[in-house]
Predict the structure.
Amino acid sequence: MSKKTIIVFSGDYDKVMAAFIIANGALAMDDEVAMFFTFWGISALRKPKAPTGIAAGKSLLQKAFSSMMAKGPERLGLSKMNFLGAGPALMKKVMKAENAMTVAQLIDSARELGVKMTVCGMSMDILGIKMEELIDGLELSGVAAMLGDAEESDVTLFI
Amino acid sequence: MSKKTIIVFSGDYDKVMAAFIIANGALAMDDEVAMFFTFWGISALRKPKAPTGIAAGKSLLQKAFSSMMAKGPERLGLSKMNFLGAGPALMKKVMKAENAMTVAQLIDSARELGVKMTVCGMSMDILGIKMEELIDGLELSGVAAMLGDAEESDVTLFI
Amino acid sequence: MSKKTIIVFSGDYDKVMAAFIIANGALAMDDEVAMFFTFWGISALRKPKAPTGIAAGKSLLQKAFSSMMAKGPERLGLSKMNFLGAGPALMKKVMKAENAMTVAQLIDSARELGVKMTVCGMSMDILGIKMEELIDGLELSGVAAMLGDAEESDVTLFI
């Protein structure tokens, strides 16, 4: 039993999927897993529907950035062969046929297995995303805490 | 003498080149190197010519995905300045002038130096790629085995 | 006190920013940090104005590649939402409003805190970039030296 740290920077469906497949694999082997979501990776944690009044404290530019970021894992694009959004839909069809879990399901599974998920506060400020927009049970964090997790880990990945 | 694990997720010529340059560097220093190819990274291992009858067990969508993926390392695009495929050709010209090895040559070199190359079975199912389409001597694998390699390594990279 | 190694392959503003935020965070905790710049990551180290006569020893293709690469950190594009260069400008506006440091400032800070920055000689040859085009105080290096740093580190990231 050891620890893994995964920095999720990317907001691409395929890369976020890879991050959670690795996380689930490690958790299944009784490893401790800390995931630190920063920048575009945060979009994977957004609720599909923004709570009302969420735009209140945002500047115009923050509204612009956050409105263009995907809302939740199933709205993310692919890093390759995205085809204006058709790629993810097609990939999910094959995944279903192959009994592979969607990213939303992988997130649920990781949480059931006890993953620690933290979000980068500085990225949230820059991109204009608020904690209420994200799924529950996340911890606001920063680079120092992430490095603390990484130092306790035998494997740290930047995805 | 220690061990390195490299997860090759990207199918970009420049990133796959970076992965193999690091692998060759480590192997030259008598390190053990395990490379785990997943998602787009698998395209670097495809044979330029698909064996006949390969499409037999593929669904329509799997055929679509696999037919759009590059066949072999020398058909990969660049992550930047690809220019619809002109970028890699130009880069290879400079590489030749500078006596730098192509990715195909780097793969050969790594294999001669004893690299362990495994492929992610789940990615192959989703992308509709079969073992017969890939170069010889690869091992079908999964996240658990990759994590086993990573735990034995002092450096693990996600590329 | 421990050591971190960061391989900066990407030349995207957001990814280079992430690399330097992590570096500064580790340096602030008295860690040793080695950054190895390779491929597109080297553009973050270029001086905004190329010294005269710099094109002298470059081949036509090297001139082409190097002329298309960004000159310095503040000319880099975003990996997402670049909008032909408008994205970085907008992001910098929000960053300023949020009191976040620019990449140029993060580089200065990391250097004051004693970061070790090395550049990949092979990438420089391929991309046609010369040492005189880069900011001062960098060390020309290669994969073997980078792996040496990585082996002494408890965290090594490929960004």
About this structure: The mean pLDDT of chain C is 94. Residues 13-28 of chain C form the longest helix (16 residues). The interface with chain B takes residues 7, 9, 11, 38-40, 59, 61-62, 64-65, 68, 122, 125-128, 142-144, 146-147, 150-151, 153, 156-158 of chain C (CB under 8 Å). The beta strands of chain C are 3-8, 32-37, 116-120, 139-141, 155-158.
